[in-house]
Amino acid sequence: MAVSGPTGPEGQPLTGLAAARARLGNLQRQASGRGEAEALQDRLTALEDKVTALTAELADNRALHRRLAELTDVVTELCVPLVERDSTGVAEVLDRYRDSL
Fold it and tell me: pTM of the full predicted structure?
């Protein structure tokens, strides 16, 4: 079976940024003018910057979701003692929460 698209040194198909870089290299070799190759390089650089920014935003988003899950757990733990009017249980849950901060 023939592999279409750019391949690595051992013939494995390239994906993601590696494929984009390989394609850019091919296009630079084929480009009739220097301007087209520079425009492609600028586009690749912009895409790499965008991936970097999105990766940072994803990490922030994961941290927020983790924090929300922790707060949801605290609220859930508080509901039972509050329903049972157990002020000692509520104090224990709040103390554990404060200690985790």
Answer: 0.49
